[in-house]
Amino acid sequence: MTIDPNGLLSYEKFESDLFNQNEYYELCSIYDNDNNIEFIVKDDIGNINIIKRTNNFTLPEFEKINDTLKKKTLK
């Protein structure tokens, strides 16, 4: 998947060949080292970011939810 600066997404199917096989194996081996890896992102200059699964979840407007729950508990 490619994301252009204007937000346009484009997808392509990976076709392995002799020139990119090592890169493919390198990226796949990242998953072998940690079971919590959700996916990886590689930018146009070669930086690799690893997105991991955690036990933490974010809630939108958590302070508002907390206030509502407190009010319900006090009644």
Which characteristics define this entry?
75 residues; alpha+beta; two-stranded antiparallel sheet; 2 helices; 33% helix
Number of strands: 4
The helical percent reads 25-40%
Give the biggest beta sheet: 2 strands, antiparallel
- What count of helical segments does DSSP give? 2
Report the average pLDDT across residues. Answer: 83
**Strand order of the main beta sheet, please?**
1-2
Contiguous uncertain segments of 5+ residues: none
What number of domains? 1
Radius of gyration: 20 Å
Shape: elongated
Q: Tell me the distance between the termini.
A: 51 Å
What portion of the residues fall into strands of 2 or more residues?
15-25%
Task: Give an overview in words.
With 75 residues, this protein is of the alpha+beta class. The chain has one domain. It has 2 helices and 4 strands; from the N terminus they run E-E-H-E-E-H. Strands 1-2 form a two-stranded antiparallel ribbon. A two-stranded antiparallel ribbon has the order 3-4. The radius of gyration is 20 Å and the shape is elongated. It starts with a strand and ends with a helix.
